[in-house]
Design brief:
Blueprint lengths: L1 E3 L19 E3 H6 L6 E8 L6 E10 L2 E8 L2 E13 L5 E6 L6 E2 L1 E5 L2 E3 L15 H13 L14 H39 L7
Helix pairs in contact: 2-3
Length: 205
Amino acid sequence: MGTGGARNWAGRPGWRPKAEHHRSLDVRRFAAENMLRPGAWTWRWLDPATEQEVASISIIGTVGRLTLSYTADGEAIRTEVAIVKTACGFGGARPWFQCPRCGSRVAKLYLRAKRFACRHCHRMSYASQSNDICGRTWGKQRKLEARLEANWQRPKHMHLKTYARLLAAILACEQARDDWLAGAMVRLMGGLDDLRKRFPDLAGV
């Protein structure tokens, strides 16, 4: 038994679903629990807070293939996933799932819209990739400010060149946010203009 648990102005598309928010199957976990061989298994997802089962999937293993049986939104689904292997540099072989949709070798398959597929087929991003320019520059600025005294004052033993470099980096963060916000406003107004053209009732908005 296994257990597991665009914004076009941003650096990463924040509208994409996050991989961490969807149930997944990890071939490495399956290999560690000896679930890539012929046999019958049940994989369960647990609530991390209560450790109670929230979902499960039945798995039938044959040579080089897993058959997944599960229910999604009341629909009984049965699908097959191929297991492929690549040679390791120091001997042995590494297993991979073959994405049922695109055929790529992947370590993880994600469940979305009732189907298991790789992250790219589901157009998923990682949560850590979705920080926009504002979030990233604020994080960087806080680290820079932590090296200074209150109100950006120079610490007593800090060299002037170091102090000047830190101030320049902080100001660059602020400028990047200003540019980002200005660009966002331009795009927002352009979007409103498009809506007014499509929907005349919005002309006064």
